[in-house]
Amino acid sequence: MKIELYHYIHCPYCIRVRMALGYLNIPWNSHVLPYSDEATPISLTGKKMLPILKDGSLVMNESLDIIKHLDTGNKLGNEEWRDFEGTLDQVAPLIYNLAMPFWVFSPEFDPASQKYFLKKKEAKRGPFAELIKKRPGFETELRPLLSSLEMRLKPFWESSTLGIRDIGLAAQLWGLFSVPEFRFSEKLHSYLMSVKELTQFNYTHFHWRQP
Q1: What percentage of the chain has pLDDT greater than the value 90?
Q2: How far lies 179's CA from each of 33, 46, 206, in Å?
Q3: Torsions phi, psi of 168, nearest 5?
Q4: Is residue 211 a contact partner of residue 32, using CB atoms and an 8 Å limit?
Q5: CA nearest 177: which of 160, 154, 201, 158?
Q6: For the segment 91-119, what is each residue's pLDDT rounded down to a tens digit?
């Protein structure tokens, strides 16, 4: 029986699980939910939170818990996560400010989902039109943070092999590919392409081929 994954295409936490499934060579069935769909996740777990993994009778949220469940041989070194969330917290808000105004107009979002996403996210971050105007400032703030991250790649995060921290980092950084004309440094781009290959990850696959 294949694992069932309920996910959004754009969501970094969902991307974490997709990357882990690919790296661990675990077959899975995809269920891409409209962002406005509250009924499905609530019926499965009692709350609107994705990703959701269904493995037989087991149903669970939380990307890191899901990955730990999947990684029975600890191939990703899950204990290495430790305080890594703090590192991601430095860059994530800037990435979201840059990427969200473009995510919402991707093929993933139907009109109802666009309306739902805009209402929810603009209440927290302000009008997306204003975020786009502020893009130069966000990029100026982000660049030195990306440079500091880059210094930790050897060629993966403080390691010669891919691990759980690379899954977390790459999943966040991938959102910047949605930002028109955004350019990574050569080293960061090469890093993301290496993670993509090792995890058999294809970001846009589900835009064009719904299950």
Answers
A1: 91
A2: 23, 33, 18
A3: -65, -45
A4: yes
A5: 201
A6: 999 999 999 999 999 999 999 999 999 99
Contacts of 39 (CB under 8 A, 6+ apart): none
- 3-state SS assignment for residue 6: strand
Domains, the chain: 3-76+203-208 (3.40.30.10), 79-198 (1.20.1050.10)
User: What type of residue is 134?
Assistant: K
The whole-model pTM stands at 0.95
Q: 55-101: per-residue pLDDT in tens? A: 999 999 999 999 999 999 999 998 889 889 899 999 999 999 999 99
Which run of H or E residues covers position 40?
Answer: helix 39-45
Tokens 């917290």, located at residue: 89
Copy the structure tokens of residue 184. Answer: 């990574």
Cα(33)–Cα(31) distance, rounded to whole angstroms? 6
Confidence (pLDDT) at 211: 41
